Amino acid sequence: MPRSLALALVSLALLLAAPALAQASWGSIAINPETGKKGIASGKATAQDAKDAAKNRCGDPHCKSALWVFNGWGAVVQKKNGVYISALGTTKAKAFSNARKRAGENSARTVASVFSGLS
Q1: Which site in 1, 36, 98, 111 is 20 to 30 Å from 16, CA atoms measured?
Q2: pTM of structure
Q3: HSE (side-chain half, CA atoms, 13 Å) at 8
Q4: What are the domain boundaries of the chain?
């Protein structure tokens, strides 16, 4: 294959992939475990950007990152004893189901969810 054709094919592949990569993003949920105050961020370029944005939206210096997710769903539930549990999933329902399974309580309270990524 001539070199110019190979370069053209690689360039075309990169151009076609760019829109999908541009839509790929991070999301995060931050929670103050003492008060339950929360902040949610999505559509961020990096995990750190998502975590920082969620903490800022929480608006409390005691907020902690509960989860961060790339191109998917994240959910947080609260156990009866007050402990927060997070999980990821391919759908919102699956993320909550996974969080409740991790919590070991089917009746764990719904706290928050976030979607970030390709729509």
Answers
A1: 1
A2: 0.79
A3: 5
A4: 25-116
Alpha-carbon gap, residue 91 to 75, rounded angstroms: 10
Q: Provide the 3-class DSSP secondary structure of residue 82.
A: coil
CA–CA dist 10, 116 (Å, integer): 28
| 102: Cα separation from own chain's centroid | 17
Sign of the four-CA dihedral 71, 41, 47, 16: positive
Query: 């690689």: which residue's tokens?
Result: 10
Alpha carbon distance 35, 49 (integer Å): 24
Separation CA 77–CA 30 (nearest Å): 12
Residue linked to tokens 């999980």: 87
The β-bridge partners of 44 are 26
pLDDT tens per residue, the chain (119 residues)?
565 544 444 444 444 444 444 467 999 999 999 999 999 999 999 999 999 999 999 999 999 999 999 999 999 999 999 999 999 999 999 999 999 999 999 999 999 999 998 65
Helix and strand numbers, DSSP H then E, in the chain: 3, 6
